[in-house]
Design a protein that fits this description.
Largest sheet: 6 strands, mixed
Strand order of the largest sheet: 2-1-6-5-4-3
Order of helices and strands: HHHEEHEEEEH
Helix content: 40-55%
Strand content: 25-35%
Number of helices: 5
Length: 170
Amino acid sequence: MKYFSIYLLCFMVFFSCKEKETLKDPALIKEDINVSLDAWHKAAADANFETYFNLMTNDGVFIGTDATENWQIEAFKSFSKPYFDKGKAWSFTPLERNVYIYDNQELAWFDELLDTQMEICRGSGIVEKLEGKWKIKHYVLSIAVPNENVKTVVDLKRKTDSILKLNLIK
């Protein structure tokens, strides 16, 4: 009986000890995410199709500035390929970026101000850590309009959005 009690105690201690989850320093995670996002933007500027799309998840989504641009990954590849093949995709230079890390450190979201051919834009998205690499899962690109110019932009949109609405209704 004495040995049974010792075995039981050892059994309980062994199975009650969970491996402590080690969390990485958030600053290092943010640095890794910034490296991935910068590489993604550089791949577009260099018209490097393979690198660009390898930095996105297999179920990635790209939301463009036009209301019709809700690109699932395969459709986005098809749309983008001719631009990359011509050696001219797009060039987004980050001016500012904020990164927020989810508790499990496998998912993060970000927002960034970008210098682009469309002037200042805002990008935001979600990145996921897959096989040790941070990849873009969802990205939204928006044209930043200064508040004092919103009325002018809205007036321009009224002229074209009615056509879009008609197409969406069909």
